[in-house]
Design brief:
Shape: globular
Radius of gyration: 13 Å
Number of strands: 2
Order of helices and strands: HEHEH
Structural class: mainly alpha
Strand content: 5-15%
Length: 83
């Protein structure tokens, strides 16, 4: 799994660039992604969705205040931060 950049204050252009890097390093596996779950946070802009759409991946927005919808990703982030 490729390791992407880290920042304390992600914004729209930074997040779009990170997804570009991920898709470039995973070109052979990009077809395996059918959809990508995103929150309503400000860093997931239309340019982020456009990068995903250019490779045939649908950006699926999870509903606000639904903590169980993204539980596995949140647990991974917690584990990565504590280590």
């Amino acid at each position: 799994m490729p390791i992407l950049g880290v920042t304390a204050n992600p914004d729209g252009p930074w997040t779009a660039q990170q997804i570009r890097h991920l898709l470039m390093t995973s070109v052979d596996r990009a077809a395996d992604f059918g959809s990508w779950s995103v929150t309503g946070a400000g860093q997931f802009t239309a340019s982020f969705d456009a990068v995903l759409a250019s490779t045939g991946i649908a950006a699926v927005k999870i509903s606000p205040r639904s903590p169980r919808a993204n539980a596995y990703a949140q647990r991974f982030v917690l584990s990565a931060r504590t280590e």
